[in-house]
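YM 10:42: Cystathionine beta-lyase sequence, as discussed on the call
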Amino acid sequence: MSKSKEWLATAGTNTKLCHGGYEPSDYHGFVNPPVVHASTVLFPNARAMETRTQRYTYGTRGTPTTDALCTAIDELEGSAGTILVPSGLAAISIPFLAYLSSGDHALIVDSVYSPCRHFCDTMLTRLGVEVEYYDPEIGAGIEALMRPNTRLVHTEAPGSNTFEMQDIRAIAEVVHRHDCVVTMDNTWATPLYFKPLDFGVDVSIHAATKYPSGHSDILMGTVSANAKHWPKLLEAHGAMGICGAPDDAYQILRGLRTMNLRLEHHFRSALKVAEWLEEQAGVARVLHPALPNFPGHEIWKRDFKGASGVFSFVLAADSPEKVKPKAHAFLDALQLFGLGWSWGGYESLAVLVNLDDRKIRKGQKDGAVIRLQIGLENVEDIIADLERGFAASAAV
Ligand SMILES: Cc1ncc(COP(=O)(O)O)c(C=O)c1O
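YM 10:58: structure's back
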């Protein structure tokens, strides 16, 4: 018989992460859930089959493994329900398709994760949705952009690559007066450092590929909705048949157990590196919300409980022609850092950011934007590697 989990509702973060989602007494006392590979589920009789009156009905509609992860995420997000999808990008595109129809207007933050913009500018536009980008620092000023047919406002804070902060509560208050849905890509903070639904967001989106996975080997997305918006999300998920795989769901739940410990390490190390970068002659600016002189710092301090391991800096260049050669010299000299796109894993990574698709928050003039993911290596080794990069770029 299943034991009660009521005590978990008021427990601390680490306790929730350790015990969330699954009750060992549900499966012979094993502390981890079974990995259920499933398409067919049998019904005991024709009546049960007709009415679908049993917990599991078909592999795409959930299994004990995916339920364990969805429940764990609901406990962290405070959401009414969570769906699993095969990537973080699908965790953006599926809710957009759930809530938007032809003739609707959608407002998307200009500092959005770039492939989201691609989805909006291609598929959404082709389906007859009017897409408009807005300044991340607009706050309550979003009122001026609302139209009678605005149905969805998408937020992401901090913004991808340039880390602008958004006043999520102020935006949600305005948007709700217009009966629109507010979505947020909260991948950077995870629900441990920012809980979107507590700030008025209706639908919280995560690339679980990043910190929940933590080991650069799993792709998965989660979408969690409040009670008002859960039925439409569940319906769209069922209609599209784009579900998370059981082995991946198991690994993400496994990752959640240690996510807070890993995040604390990423937070500490990344901040140390960011502070060190601020002192370097080759750096024009450091774009990290936890630094007191960063423009969005006050919002971060007010609303967020921590910062993860990803931030950017502007590599100073004394002339426009030198921006790219200096950036390439910097990146090519790195030995510990890998050059790779994803983040949230154990290893440090660097990327030369391309801001050409921005409509409002365009590229920096004083140098290349380099995004760093600070991994779990020793900070001294990370800094020693960055020193190699600065020496190489100074020689250009
Ligand atoms: C902010 C953000 N959201 C979503 C995604 C998409 O995640 P995935 O790589 O799982 O598609 C990424 C990936 O880099 C991201 O940075």
